[in-house]
Amino acid sequence: MAKPRLLSRLFLSAALLLAGAASAADIVTIGYQTGIDPTKIPQADGAYEKATGSRIHWRKFESGAELIAALASGDVAIGNIGSSPLAAAASRGLAIQTFLVADEIGSAEALVARSGSGIAKPQDLVGKKVAVPFVSTTHYSLLAALKHWNIDAAKVNVLNLRPGEITAAWQRGDIDAAYVWDPALGKLKAGGKVLATSRQVAEWGAPTYDIWVVRQDFAAKHPEFVSRFAKVSLDAIGQYLANPQAFIANADNIAKIGRLTGAAVPDVVAGLRGNRFLSRDEQAALLQSPFVQAVGKTAAFLKAQGKVDALQADYGPYVTNRFVKTAR
């Protein structure tokens, strides 16, 4: 029979082992959206879990604004948002950092006018109902496009709807146009006319990006997790860049992306071809002064439009290339 002191040591050892197991089993909640990009492949395959040695709870969001709220509350540690929601959140001082660029948005986001709406040209948008998720990249792009066309945004009835709500409103005939991304975009294009894409808006001086951000407190406590997450993402993007045609021709790749995003095969293919994906070196260079300047410019535009109340003197603290550099 074990002596009391020995039993105490055994119980203490068991408790420590259980505590260690609980720590290893901690769940990291990561928010994602339905944007189409190569990082959906490792997400579907469980590669992030394998690389980080952690359990991950993937939580799907319909808009950047909703994901920002979850990051602010601490419900989400890492999130996939657009550069416009980042600019708005950083302007409010939310302690997050951009550490990876999923893509530079091109034709995968677009403004579409519904057939029969009476909208044949941009100027016809005046007085019409145009839906867009507020504080999203498409919201920013819509405002930038209206400015480019010299259309007063106040004369357009801009409605705040999430992608799923946009699809439903479109089918009911409740809206005249919408600026959105896939899978909703593919459904709209089937019954409408594209007035502008985000690639065109970028050429007009207002580029947008899909990015990965992390809560600064999480990054400080778990830098290795963030570095490994970045490596898995960059490897997936690298596989696409090495041979885009082969990547798209792989039916398994397209199916996995489709399952996570809800997009049909043609929309997945269009989304991959419609965005620009950046290599490791390109990201390391972008996530320095160029991206910081882009965020500042976006924030200034949003303030001029009355969407944010104040600006940061420096947006540098909200961007880092540290994890791209350590993702080896």
From TrEMBL:
Protein name as it appears in the record: Taurine ABC transporter substrate-binding protein
Pfam families: NMT1 (PF09084)
Keyword set, alphabetical order: Signal
PANTHER family the record matches: ALIPHATIC SULFONATES-BINDING PROTEIN-RELATED (PTHR30024), TAURINE-BINDING PERIPLASMIC PROTEIN (PTHR30024:SF47)
Keyword Nucleotidyltransferase included in the entry's annotation: no
Family membership: Belongs to the bacterial solute-binding protein SsuA/TauA family.
Compartment(s) of residence: Periplasm
Residue runs in coiled coils: none
SMART domains for the chain: PBPb
Top-rank taxon: Bacteria
GO biological process: alkanesulfonate transmembrane transport
Signal sequence, start to end: 1-24
InterPro entries: Peri-bd_TauA, Solute-binding_3/MltF_N, SsuA/THI5
Residue ranges occupied by any Solute-binding protein family 3/N-terminal domain in the UniProt entry: 27-244
Species of provenance: Chromobacterium sphagni
